[in-house]
Predict the structure.
Amino acid sequence: MDAPRRRERASFWTQAHALARKQASLQKRRWLGNLGLLAAPFLICMLLWVLQEVINKQLDSRSFRCGCKCLACCDWVPAEGGNSSSAGDVPFNGSTAVSYQCYEATDDKPCSPYAKCQAYNDTECGLLYSTADQVGFCGVAEPPLWPALLDVPQERYRGPKAPDFEPGGLPGPAGIPPSAAPMLYMGDDPEAARQLMEAMWARQSSITDAVMAAYLAAGPGAPTSTENETIANEAQFVEATGALARGLVQFDLSMGTSASTSMSLLLEPAFVSQGSGDHGQDPARPPLYFALPNCSALSEDDAATLGRIGESITNLTGFPVQCASLPPASQVERSWINDQVYCGWGNSQCVLRNGTKRELPADSPAATPGGTGSIQEFVSALYDWHNTSAAAGLRVTVWVNDTNVGGGQATGQGPPDVQRWSQAVNLAANAYLKRQLGPAASARLAGVKDMPKGASRLSLDFSSLLGPLFSMWLLQLMLPVGVHALVHEKEAHLRVMMRMQGLSDAAFYCVMYCWAFALYCAFVAVFCTFGGLIGLRIFTLNSYSLQAVFYLAWGLCLTSWSFYFSALWAEARPAVLLCVVWVIVSGFMANLVMTQYIEQGPVLLANLIQLIPSFNLFRGLYELSQYAFLADRTGGTGLTWGKLLEPANGMISVLLICGIESIGLMLTGYYVEQVRGAGTGVRRHPLFFWGFKMSEGESGEGGPLRRWLRRRRTAAAASARSGSRKPGKQQASAPTAMPAALSLARRSSQQSLHEQWQAAAATSAPASSAGDDVAAALEEHDWAAQYYGSYGSMTSPALRSPYLPALGSMPAAAAAGVVEAGAATELPSSSLPRKPTSLCLSVAPEPSLPGSGAERADSVTSGGTAGEEEAEGPDVAAERARAEALWQQWQRDPGRAPPAAILLRSLRKVFPSRDGNAEKVAVADLSLAIQRRECFGLLGPNGAGKTTTIRMLEGFMHATSGQALVEGHSIASDMGAIYSLMGACPQHDLLWEGLTGREHLLFYARIKGLRGRALRRAADDGLRSVNLFTVGDELVGGYSGGMKRRLSVAISLVGDPQVVYLDEPSTGLDPASRQLLWNVIRAARKERAVVLTTHSMEEAEALCDRLGIFVGGRLRCVGQPQDLVARFGGYLSFYITTPPGQETAAAAVVRGLSPSARLVSSLGGCQKFELPVGEAGVDAIFARMEAVKARGELSLIDWGVSNATLEEVFVKITRDAGVRLTAFA
């Protein structure tokens, strides 16, 4: 027996280098697709840039920039010498009549920022030339100080609502004039509340005395009037507003306004015009008010003093100044304040009368919004003093009006305006101090001002706002790309093909991971580089090193995710489709859900959702975009390493999750792929990492539940069959004396095979005595003679025993014969034990053709009834016994060289029931031993089980039960070792269209460990051997089907494998190419075991040392081609052609030659018969036909006689065996 050649498996680095070079060659030829892939970030960045430029162009108007000096304008200006009076409590000044004029701006007559400007000086810009909307874009180093103001309603909104409706029930106190705006208040102690309201307006001295004291304190240089004064620059403007605020504090005066508010305090709309006049009215300059409890109670001196102060303010600001009475109005209950404020709302249809909220009549003018008296507003300073006292301290609630927030947070239309609430609160604080410490005590608010700021322009950083969504889609684009690359190779069985040639999982995962990650890095490099070049803020404002770490961490996570995702699928199309759908949907989901959870909580839920890789990516992009957006608005820096510890910053969790999932997803994907075996070979045990291996029962299709159900069905069917058998029906017994073990009684089908072997061994002679009885057993049972003798008449009875003997229980001659390399022995025609099978065949014999007077006595198998097991021929039984003997020999001494190159023991494959179809037994308990330097041919019709057997040996699919050894390695647990020593040519060509033939051979040769000259020589010799040397550098995609087939054969032989599987290698080849391929296979079988499947009988006879014919998943016969022809073709093939009408006479002539002649075919006077060899000789046939011709018995056209061919034997065996599988257990 030849010892197997041992070759060291190629190292990890050698295989990794081979796979990397293969990938490089593929990607090099896919440069256009890769270029399109790398162009995706370029296109996305260009889209963002174009959108950003369009938006910037729309926002780059003067309305969204700091205002510049207007040189010529059209505006409403005061009319020459005309003015009109305006009514008020005390008319200190009037409003000037205006007219619309266009003019050139001068120092004496400048253009208002709100005028329709026709020419600008863009070199002189600033606060003075800006509107309230523009001032926010100006750089202001020293913001102006403004007096703190109260919100006072316009005079038309001060009176009571619906005064004619139940006037007797108007809320008190009585006597408040309609022009007054009452300050509602209450407290737990009404008297204390009243004292606090009186203290609020208490003065230490009169207004005139306070003004005079301030003037004297200022010194002789203090100005006495602002008439004819102009403000030439921003510094003077700031000084003037500060002087105004400080003066009001010194005078102990409070002011109010009905002007709208703005988003900042850089320009106070109460002092700076918000527009131009309109047809004699001045809505852009609402009056300013001196806030007093009762303006009519002023002395003449104080009224005159206030008039002069108001005139100065008017000269400075252009706004008229009036006095507004804000008398305190005590309320009994807190609900009264709320009800009065609500009912004063224009859309309400109620009023407060006698402390009760009353509905207005439908015909009341006040009930109609916008009607007369339909609105009553209150000063934005209503007080609830609670229990404020010296002991309890200041406890006050200030009610303010936020109706004019300006479309801010209340309406969700923009940032809120700055509200005038500070003066109301300060008045309450001063009221408490004055009541407790006297009128001299106060803490007057000096004024309000904004923060200094730099110049800015309105811009919408589109990349920061929508960047996370676009970037998320883009950065996940590599997911479907990576999944397609991995799943496609599984779907096309290229992955298994590489494993069959010896590629280790470690090398595959390492190279494919690195390759996918490198492609991602190139993708992201283009994205970030181009995005930075076009100025996208998310790239330019954040830390470059932090971005690099984030993108690399996500790349590792994404690559691992691709491997995990690919492990779940065996088909590329649905996998890629699901990936694309997930990329799109997850982007929208993350943009909607994650943003809400991050900004509004709960934070824990946001952190949990981050465990999904897509949402974790969005969180990282969200952090980068938000910091970039804030930096763009404030002029600061974006996200840096130092800001990672800031509250609510989630970048650290993003990086940690990416790192953990990079490892976890990769390991999980590897585990799922190994356990499921989807497209990668035989499944492994769920606990394979602890050394567990799949047992025979666990290797079936489906999960544990499906296997349990299948076992239940099998047991039930077996029980039903045994119960339906007729009493007294026994199995065939051995006609000759056999060793005790070979005459075992039939055990129950539920008994395990191991137990049956133990029982057989217990009744046989000890194993140690087997060798001593070799000679005696050989004399008693001439196995070789019986195996190679004449079986033409098939006189031996059918073998039906379901048990296999142990090696020690076999006849010693068999034990000695089966261990020789290439030995072909067979047990005698008796009941040989073998493993029971659940396959039941119903053989439907074909009806005899007309004129056939003979029964088909020499069929291979006899027809059986449903529920009985198929008979097994003596040659197949002998091969089963031989394989079992070799198996037992290997089990006794596993350390020695394997007894056969390929050893199959009861190998079985059952495809489970699916879609209503019954189970399909593809291979039924195949036992076979193939020696080294032997070419074994598997013949059979389509669907016979040949390819299924090859695929199980190659690792394409697992066996349902049974064992198979390839050079001593089990296909159930040691496929990795088997792959390193085998070569395979599958039934379908598994090739890369983008590689050349030479690159295929170089790749697989490198996997086998070849290098240097040996590598190049192996590739060249392989191409020459199959006549592809001249086209070896052309892409396989351009090869014909025959050329691809020859290349597949060359691949199977590269690297000197010990076992080669050739599945129909000559399919599609022309005769010359087929003959060339046969020469290659003949040369290959001299050094290795070859398993060949083919439909060509000529090919089988030319190449195979032994043949096995499969029908219906069963091995029907086995032997050398000549032996099969001799045993199963024991007849002469005779054909005779006569004119139509002489068929009967011709058949009579043939019957005269051979009474048992069998008509095979009859068509148009041409008939073909099978003549048993024992009834007619060739010389007799020639003599008889010459006599027929001489006597003119027939008008012979043609006739001929020949021995049976292998093809005829194959057709006969296939026909006689039958192929209708009618029942499965």
